[in-house]
Amino acid sequence: MHDRRRFLQISAGALATSAISLTRNRTWGADEKKPLFDISLAEWSLHKTIFGKKLDHLDFAKTAKEDYGIHAVEYVNQFFKDKAKDQTYLGEMKKRCEDLGVKSVLIMVDGEGALGDADEAKRTKAVENHYKWVEAAKFLGCHSIRVNVPSSGTFDEQMERAADGLRRLSQFAAQHGLNVIVENHGGLSSNGKWLASTIQKAGLPNCGTLPDFGNFGSYDRYLGVTETMPFAKAVSAKSKNFDAEGNEVDTDYFKMMKIVLDAGYHGYVGIEYEGTKLSEPEGIRATKKLLERVREKLS
Question: 2-26+37-298 has which CATH code?
Fold first, then answer.
């Protein structure tokens, strides 16, 4: 058992390194300077448009590139919930991205059970429910799936249960060269110290975080991102409202991105607009413009 666990840890490390490299594989010319970070578009930014049948999920990559000039996308499984094992459908997604030169970064997975469930049988079922999304993400060329770790019990009990679910799923994902990443997404996952400790307890290099600038509730967002960045394999730039100068009113993007960069992260930063004052297209453009301004100033 110990030998197998050690083998999986070693395999996970090698494969996770390979998976992470997928986010940084562009070749830069001699006269070009590699940007501090790349920008991707989270599909949730267009959830009203998609749920309203004004945009088909299959056209998301095209919209990202042609409407917003973004060449990397982050999927949400809710928009193709019954297609995880549909090779024809996934093949069409992949072909469209390849034809457009758009990179598939990750899949945000919801609705597949609690990876920290107190009932071990239900926890096991939740782990197994995620297998198909690991396989789909691998097929599409993603480097990670984003999961949730709801649980119950005390602070420490929830940590133990969530770490167990994450460890087992990450062992499976390692066999496919994929990362399993957790976003601060409610419950104790919005406590930066708890989330960082849970990832440490899971103890596998392909198990990490997706720090979101929002979703911390009353927990200090700058502290939360600082605590979870050492394990980050993706970053979510949550935005809602902007002032007259184009700054996000709830998050100081300059301060937050300095935390991200100081942690040594230079991968994709995903735009996730959730505001109501601006339309989804306007919010996406405002967030992109702000990230580009931050990137230029910090370079």
Answer: 3.20.20.150
